[in-house]
Amino acid sequence: MYSTYNGTLKTHLTEIISTNVGITKHSKKGQLDIARYVFDQMPKRSVNSWNTMISRYSKWGKFNESLSLVSIMHGSYVKLNETTFSTVLSVCAQLKCLINGKQIHDLVLKSGYESFEFVGSSLLYFYRNCFEIEEAKRVFEELREENGLLWSAMLVGYVQCNMMSDAFDLFMRMPRRDVVMWTKLISGYVTSEDVDGCEKALELFRWMIQSGEVMNDEFTFDAVVRGCDRLGVLHEGRAVHGMLIKCGYEFDHLIRGALIEFYCSCEHINEAKRVYDRVANPGLDASSSIISGLILKKHPSLTCTPNVETLLKRKHHLTASLHPMWRHGQLLLMDMRVILFERALLGACWFWMNMEEGKKVAKKIFGFDPKPVSAYVTLIEHIRNIEEDTHEEEIFVFEQNSCLVLCHASTSTRYHSTAPSLTRHRSWDSQDVPFFRRLALNYCFGQ
After folding, report:
1. 403 phi, psi to nearest 5 deg
2. Helix (H/G/I), strand (E/B), else coil: 136
3. Where would one find coiled-coil regions in this protein (predicted)?
4. Which residues have CB under 8 Å from 7's CB, separation 6+?
5. What is the pLDDT of residues 97-135, one digit of tens each?
6. Across 177-322, where does the E strand assignment appear?
7. Average pLDDT, stretch 13-24?
């Protein structure tokens, strides 16, 4: 009888393991519906079965489905473990679900898993991503002795919230500083809102070299070059360029674009072109940077001027490159690239006064974006420039989500007489027009 029980148990375990393998196989291919069907058909599910399905939903960006499955798991009286907690906290961080995340935090405290490294790090990551920096600090102070990963996570949180003085104080308290932490603080100063942020970044870089604690990597050099770019310090940038050549990072795709932008900003186009010409296979970033520099400085090596027709031809190449993406299910990434390109194309139509093409592109943008305020403002400015002498008002009517929006473009004054008229929409009246105009202009030119 005992041997029969052992045999039955072994059979059940084998079935669970094989089913988990099947779920993993299907979900890796993006076949989440099939994986979920296999999961739902399991007579008995282990914690690993739940975790596999939850984590696969998360990896494919199905955060709501992942969170819903955790709720079902908890309602089924299955005990959540450290893997479950770390995954669901990361999901809450992505969704910025503060309420759900705090409920999970309560479960973590009751279960005693807060001392586990990845759970503690996920907790801090969750509060950091929700910009609850005080809660993140509390988690850090409670667990920092037991969890070395929290130091780097807390530093990233301070930088993310632009609390650079707190980030520097924490950096000085760190028991061990690796190149990632040095680089994170340097790049934080470069991108910060502090007036002297870039100068502090360069000072920190000099200290990093003198201390000899770590070796610079390509990300460090990229941040420093961009800092030199913002400050416009040509001598310092050239010195950094010499250092990265010695370290063998000159041909790194990340640094190439930064170097070209730096030399273009300092109006040393020939040096930027030399950096570009030394690259065997320049990437998109490097090519975009050198083209922008040549156009802005009207360099003689630019033998032709690109116009809207250039972008239209490039659009066909972009469309062809998107086919493999939709065939492999990367629809979100495809949509993101298309809408960014269409907005750039609309700007080109405005610049080159191609009104007919601008109308076509704008309508495509309205199909992607339910509130394309920047597109409306670009169109309005477009009409004004084309009909500058007529002082006439042209009305465009676009239907978006069964809501009729009227855009009025008057050419008599600049911006102040331009406002979308929303009087036909039941939730708007004429008093809302000045507010909407300010909102539109802030959206278009303030971001």
Report:
1. -120, 125
2. helix
3. none
4. none
5. 999 999 999 999 998 898 888 899 999 999 999 999 999
6. none
7. 76
Give the pLDDT confidence of 331-355 residue by residue, as tens digits: 344 444 455 555 556 666 655 566 6
- C-alpha 174 chain-centroid distance: 28
Cα 340 versus chain centre, distance:
13
Residue 440: pLDDT over 60: no
Whether the CB-CB separation of 407 and 363 falls below 8 Å is answered with no
Q: Which residue has the higher pLDDT, 89 or 322?
A: 89
* pLDDT at res. 233: 93
The three state secondary structure string of the chain is CHHHHHHHHHHHHHHHHHHHHHHHHHHHCCCHHHHHHHHHCCCCCCHHHHHHHHHHHHHCCCHHHHHHHHHHHHHCCCCCCHHHHHHHHHHHHHHCCHHHHHHHHHHHHHHCHHHCHHHHHHHHHHHHHCCCHHHHHHHHHHHCCCCCHHHHHHHHHHHHCCCHHHHHHHHHHCCCCCHHHHHHHHHHHHHCCCCCHHHHHHHHHHHHHHHCCCCCCHHHHHHHHHHHHHHCCHHHHHHHHHHHHHCCCCCCHHHHHHHHHHHHHCCCHHHHHHHHHCCCCCCHHHHHHHHHHHHHCCCCCCCCCCCHHHHHHHHHHHHHHHHHHHHCCCHHHHHHHHHHHHHHHHHHHHHCCCHHHHHHHHHHHHHHCCCCHHHHHHHHHHHHHHCCCCCCCEEEEEEECCEEEEEEECCCCCCCCCEEECCCCCCCCHHHHHHHHHHHHHHHHCC
In terms of residues, how long is the chain?
A: 447
How does strand 403-409 pair with strand 419-421? antiparallel
CB 241 within 8 A of CB 259: yes
Q: Could you give the CA distance from residue 51 to residue 105 in angstroms, rounded to a whole number?
A: 18
Of 269, 268, 179, 267, nearest to 224 by C-alpha is 179
What is the pTM (predicted TM-score) of this model?
0.63
Closest listed residue to residue 263, CA positions, set 300, 223, 235: 235
Distance CA 429, CA 263 (A): 51
Alpha carbon of 214 to those of 41, 178, 306, 390: distances in Å?
53, 6, 45, 66
Q: Is the dihedral angle over the CA atoms 301, 303, 309, 315 positive or is it negative?
A: negative
* Domain limits, the chain: 177-302, 308-445
pLDDT tier at 275 (50, 70, 90 boundaries)?
Answer: confident
